[in-house]
């Protein structure tokens, strides 16, 4: 009787595991998302500065190169020195980033504090169910595997091999159930937008949100299309 009471105490509620995983994903994404926004802005700023440097150097060099056959050697040397000076100035501008704190301050000053959380709802739609399934399946797999192989010899609650296998199994489960379909839907939605698209076509776009995209793919191409 005492053993049954111990087993009942050790048995964990799957609903609590599901809620705990979803809550962990919610808290993690909410706290870390501003850092991801800052990182993305810094990368885009550096990329744009590099593009501007290349454009400035190209616009300075090309006219001189086209007329180089009519130039004497001293003039060509002056042209090359001037172009290298412009390139150095542009490279210094590229290297002089604001840093994470400066980027965060600039975003808040120009766009408001809420701008640090742009795109957070899309992150929630992916990470909350993923973490919920991870927590739930890990505990269920670990308990089930331990019952199959028997109690560990070391006296611990779960053996190392069982914990390792449960981790692999829960990662595979979340990839099949959430990660791969969500990634397919995200790519389909992103592929609708490009620099040459007519703004009027945005109102008639095929995919509008993750759930609608998943149902559209399933209806038109079948369930296997979500795992391509």
Overall shape: flat
The oligomerization state is single chain
Helix content: over 70%
Major sheet details: none
Give the mean pLDDT.
75
Gyration radius, rounded: 28 Å
Cα distance spanning the termini: 52 Å
Order of helices and strands: HHHHHHH
Question: How many strand units?
Answer: 0
Beta-strand content = under 5%
Quickly give the structural class.
Answer: mainly alpha
Low-confidence stretches: 64-72
What is the tally of helical segments?
7
Summarize the structure.
The protein has 228 residues and is an all-alpha fold. The chain contains seven helices and no strands.
What does this entry look like structurally?
The protein has 228 residues and is mainly alpha-helical. 75% of the residues lie in helices and 0% in strands. The chain contains 7 helices and no strands. The chain has helices at 2-10, 14-66, 73-95, 99-111, 120-149, 160-190, 210-221. α2 (14-66) packs antiparallel against α3 and α2 packs across α5. The chain is flat and about 60 Å long.
Could you list some keywords that capture this structure?
flat, single chain, about 75% helix, 7 helices, mainly alpha, about 230 residues
């Amino acid at each position: 009787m005492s053993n049954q009471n111990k087993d009942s105490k050790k048995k964990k509620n799957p609903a609590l595991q599901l809620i705990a995983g979803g809550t962990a994903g919610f808290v993690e994404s909410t706290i870390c998302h501003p850092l991801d926004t800052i990182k993305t802005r810094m990368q885009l700023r550096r990329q744009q500065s590099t593009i501007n440097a290349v454009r400035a150097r190209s616009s300075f060099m090309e006219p001189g190169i086209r007329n180089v056959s009519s130039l004497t050697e001293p003039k060509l040397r002056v042209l090359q020195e001037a172009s290298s000076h412009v390139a150095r100035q542009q490279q210094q501008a590229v290297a002089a980033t604001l840093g994470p704190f400066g980027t965060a301050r600039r975003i808040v000053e120009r766009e408001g504090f809420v701008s640090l959380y742009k795109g957070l709802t899309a992150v929630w739609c992916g990470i909350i169910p993923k973490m919920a399934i991870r927590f739930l399946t890990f505990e269920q797999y670990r308990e089930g595997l331990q019952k199959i192989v028997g109690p560990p010899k070391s006296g611990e609650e779960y053996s190392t091999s069982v914990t390792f296998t449960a981790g692999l199994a829960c990662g595979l489960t979340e990839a099949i159930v959430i990660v791969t379909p969500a990634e397919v839907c995200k790519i389909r939605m992103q592929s609708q937008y490009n620099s040459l698209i007519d703004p009027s076509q945005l109102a008639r776009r095929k995919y509008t949100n993750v759930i609608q995209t998943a149902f559209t793919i399933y209806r038109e191409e079948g369930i296997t299309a979500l795992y391509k």
